[in-house]
Amino acid sequence: MKIKNNYIVETALMTHGVADLLKMEILSLWGNNDSDFVWLDKGNLKVGKLYEFLKFKNNNSIEHRVNSENYEEAKKNKLTAALTASGTLCAGEELNVEYAVSCSISGVSPFENNIITPDLHKIVESDVTLIATSFKDTVNRKESIKWLRKSGVSIFGRESEFSTGFMFNLEPVQLHAIYQKNINIWHKPQLLLNEVSHLSRFENLELLKEIIRAGIEARNNGEYFHPAVNNKLAELTDARSAIIQINSLLDNTKWAKEITS
Fold it and tell me: Which comes out higher in pLDDT, residue 35 or 61?
């Protein structure tokens, strides 16, 4: 399978995270970016540009989200699915690329008995480096970063050596350093964070409480937690949060292209 770039992009956000936006709105925001997206079609790993994935999504029901823990099982069971950050790291290993690109990632989850989620485990295990925006505001960011650092992961910020949140301005947490291209003093595995500008985030923390309630309700009903959180925030912000996330993912792909060029 031929890949033009030395990085690939997750499809979970475009599948379940920006439901309030139409295909043409998403493509308009994305412009002429030529990044390669990855997903599963009846268990087969597929690679395509955003317009190809959105066409596939429009013609197929994509109910599943596949992460690193169920990646091989999903392929064996011939599932059609979007790939999360950790699922994209698995695909990156299969495709022999150096970087995987995501938007927000999971971590130590206070709403799931503080489990260490697949994103964290796979960041530690994989030779593919993840470029993400930040940790989701619904996870324990401080403990997630602490766990990764204890596990030997070097975490770099694009603009700052602190992580301060995803869609909300939260408590700063120390990273290793600001990323410098071709740096070689920090060993792999690595996590690279490119956080949303403080000016673009939401100030009202009551919104955070409300979207957490929506996520918990969805989980109690047997549905996915994080898509419910995303869609509730989009509802409360007239889709502004969805636009911010797409622009953030776009910016992450540009950083990936810069790093790999």
Answer: 35
